[in-house]
Amino acid sequence: MHNLFSKKASVIALVLTLCFTLVLAGCGSGSNNTSGDSSSTNSADHSNDPANASGKLTVWGWDKAWFEGTGAKFNEKFPNVKLEFVEVSAGDYLKKIQTSIAAGSGLPDIIWGEAAFRGALYELNVLQSLSEEPYNFDTSNLLDFELPLLTNSKGELVGLEQSGSPGALAYKRDLAKEYFGTDDPDALTAMFPDWDTFIAKGKEVYEKSGGKTFMLGSLMDAYTILSNQGTTAVVDGTKVNTQELLRIFTQLQSIRDNNAEGKLAMWSPTWNASYSQDNVIFYPSANWSPEFVIKPNDKASNGRWGLMVPPEGGYPYGGTTIGIWKDSKNKDAAWAYLNWLLGTDEGAEANFATSDYILPLKSFFKDTSKLSSGADEYFGGQDLGKFWVEKVFPNMKSKAVTKYDQDIYSSSELVLQVMAQDNSFDAKQALDKWEEQLKKNHPELTFE
Amino acid sequence: MQKSKGISSKNKWPYLFITPYFLSYAVLSLFPILFTLYISLTDWDLYGNRNFIGFSNYTQLFFHDAFFWKSLLNVMIFMAVYLPALVLMGMLVASLIESKLIRRKTLFRLSVFSAYMTTPVAVGIIFSLLFDWQGGFFNNMLMELGIIQEKINWLGSASSSRWVVILMVFWKNLGYFVMFYTAGMASIDTSIYEAAVIDGASSKDVFTRITIPLLKPINLFLIITSIISGLQLVEEPMLLFSGWASGSSMVGGPDGSTFTPIWYMFDASFNGSAFKYGKGAAIAYGTFLFIALFSVVGMKWINRGGDDK
């Protein structure tokens, strides 16, 4: 009997021990091994010369061509820093970051934040402040519009811009000539000093074309520009500036009422197809759009496209913040990488050479002649590099990013879909619906 | 024979052999289930909160959250339409395939079933393309046929987008139902049919008096599992409205008409920028309560005769 009992007890004890070991192994990994993916081999030289930095840096990102191109140039200068790239798509990025935080496992040494979600990323408290010792990044060297895009709600600089992403309007030259009498970008910019003029012209175009041609593809196209222009953020702390949003919605309503948008869902196959058709004249365009959006969607044309400054000026469209994980074991090497790549003229040149990315550094902008990209046949001989640097960057403004940005965008998308199809749905109703949507997961917001 | 006294040297082997399963169950299922319960009692989010708040998440959810109730109502509406349709059409198609009229049965079985094998992502894309407003195949077809004069924004209004979701679920699951019914029908002893025919029963009588009653266990299984998966519906509507740009999605569809509880859980915890894990866990448990409730009600209703299990 005694023998039986002890056998039984030993089996139970074995089972329980295994259970506990497994459970503890499952959830305990984060507490003592916070270095996670990053290697802890950093033997960072504590001398002040960053060129001696060494270690292995783990980077999560999606733009591999750029990473490898600039990384090779970086390694010429810093041969002791090894770079390891883990490809994570921009769409999954924040989910991967948040599950790693929740599970207590480590993050990469270098973290990327795309425009859509960087506001939320900043508030997760995982990025190293670069305003502090020993980094003390001199923000006065950044173009003025950049600072709000790289700063968290505490006012700390938490990363540097991978590429200044100026936004403008792309247009089809043949349609511009037909409806406005000119296809010259400067003349068109002068023709449309503000949105009201733009919308009024949209009504004419719609009537003249017999309801076949529209200024813009969708309300979201217009929203992309309107919501990024100016400096008034929609949310400040937890206060929502409903007047600012009502102003935007009212303008969008006017665009709809005057038939200046083609009711194509932005980024949908029909919207993409419209690039090679005659139903839409203008599209929001960033400096990455020619390569990734316009040319792929309109392969056959040549000289059909132009870029112009939109009514009421340039706006930030996209962009990626790159920062350092605040618990990284390789901060010295990470800083050497980040600072050289995105904070110096040398890095800026490597960026431009690799992917035509333009770093928003004042020192780099002193001589803009090197940023010319030459006459582009596809764009009717326009020099795109020169266009961005001379026409758009100088008058760009930006608003502070917030952790709500992603939800603001998706709430707007939802109400604008209703607005597009229901002509009785006005800006005020849109605002009410929008508030309701945003409050769903953010009850702390107050609407003023 | 001596009565079993727990684990003895004789019967320890079965216990040892099933231990790995229960170990993995404890770690991969039981622990997460209990941990989720714990999370649902906290205000855990990724912005630094992690306090025990008792049942606040639940009271908020059940008494103050219109979105939760609306999402539940949506899935009930979906089920109320597609479940009866699936049962009826499933039986009809299955009996057609099993009947003497059809020769190449395997081909038909496979073609009906193939929709079920399609990945939800593809289904979402197919339906967004079909029902796109300006360029969708469906609108173009109706225009060409002269049935409509102006294109209809199927995915833009509350009622039509609900119908599209219902259609998606119906189309996807019909093959699954047909598969079960054909298997069920094949297992019914042919002598019963023969006896009925000799006794002069019409084919309608054979179907309603023999086939349907004998398919009851299959119906029970299909309906209960459909209620469970129906309340957990998320991929179909989410992919339909996931938007074309990466990362964005029109959460809930127009006017929240295709919002579902699990989508709400995903939205509150992972998708947007709220990262409210406490709330998400409470939604998961809230939904679980309803799943349990409806499964029991469904089972009782089907067994209301009380004659067999």
UniProtKB/TrEMBL annotation, chain A:
It comes from Paenibacillus silagei. It holds the Pfam family SBP_bac_8. This is Multiple sugar transport system substrate-binding protein. PANTHER family: ARABINOSE-BINDING PROTEIN-RELATED, POLYGALACTURONAN_RHAMNOGALACTURONAN-BINDING PROTEIN YTCQ. SUPFAM superfamilies: Periplasmic binding protein-like II. Residues 31-50 are annotated as: Disordered. The lineage of its organism: Bacteria, Bacillati, Bacillota, Bacilli, Bacillales. Residues 1-25 form the signal peptide. PROSITE patterns: PROKAR_LIPOPROTEIN. Keywords: Cell membrane, Lipoprotein, Membrane, Palmitate, Signal, Sugar transport, Transport. Residues 31-45 have a biased composition (Low complexity).
From TrEMBL, chain B:
InterPro entries: ABC_transporter_permease, MetI-like, MetI-like_sf. The chain crosses the membrane at residues 21-41, 72-94, 106-131, 163-183, 214-234, 282-302. It is found in: Cell membrane. Keywords: Cell membrane, Membrane, Sugar transport, Transmembrane, Transmembrane helix, Transport. The keyword Hydrolase does not apply. Residues 72-298 form the ABC transmembrane type-1 domain. The keyword Heme does not apply. CDD domains: TM_PBP2. It is a multi-pass membrane protein. It comes from the Bacteria. Pfam families: BPD_transp_1. Belongs to the binding-protein-dependent transport system permease family. This is Multiple sugar transport system permease protein/cellobiose transport system permease protein.
